[in-house]
Amino acid sequence: MKKSKVLQLNNDYIQSQKSKSQQKQDENRQKNRFMGSILILVVFLFVLPTYNLVQTYHTLKEKEQQLVDLQKQYDKLAADEKIESSLVTKLKDKDFAAKYVRAKYQFSKEGEFVYNIPGLLPK
After folding, report:
1. pLDDT by residue (tens digit) across 21-55?
2. Which of 8, 86, 107, 108 is the Cys-Cys partner for 112 at CB 3.0 to 4.6 Å?
């Protein structure tokens, strides 16, 4: 290797300039650390509400799906209730009630034969 032919002076002025340069670098490092800390804090403060917002959104979607499912179930139960109430109204008629009991439970009068045919049950 070649030696450098530049001679560096080491006097008081050079030492003071190095010292000032070192102080400025230290101050800049402290400022950068402080700004980095603030940046991390700001990011953290935005992440938590965003996480809560996403979680609330998912909960809302689940509740909406549950509402749709319950509405379908309600409609089905309302239709079943309508069918059952019409059957109750029809069963108030004695002739219909007799036919219904004979068909559903295979009751018969004496000397009578009952043949069960699927789908012929009165409604």
Report:
1. 999 999 999 999 999 999 999 999 999 899 999 99
2. 108
Those residues with Cβ within 8 angstroms of residue 72's Cβ, 6 or more apart along the chain or in another chain: none
Answer whether 15's CB lies under 8 Å from 9's CB.
no
CB 102 within 8 A of CB 108: yes
Q: Say how far apart CA 49 and CA 44 lie, in whole Å.
A: 9
Q: At what angle do helices 12-91 and 94-105 cross, to 10 degrees?
A: 110
Contact 77, 83 (CB under 8 A): no
* pTM over cut 0.85: no
What does the block give as tokens for 55?
A: 């979680």
| Amino acid identity for residue 89 in this structure | T
pLDDT digits (tens, 9 = 90+) for 60-87: 999 999 999 999 999 999 999 999 999 8
Q: In this structure, what token pair is assigned to residue 29?
A: 């490092």
DSSP string for 33-64: HHHHHHHHHHHHHHHHHHHHHHHHHHHHHHHH
Q: Quick one: tokens of 6?
A: 């530049």
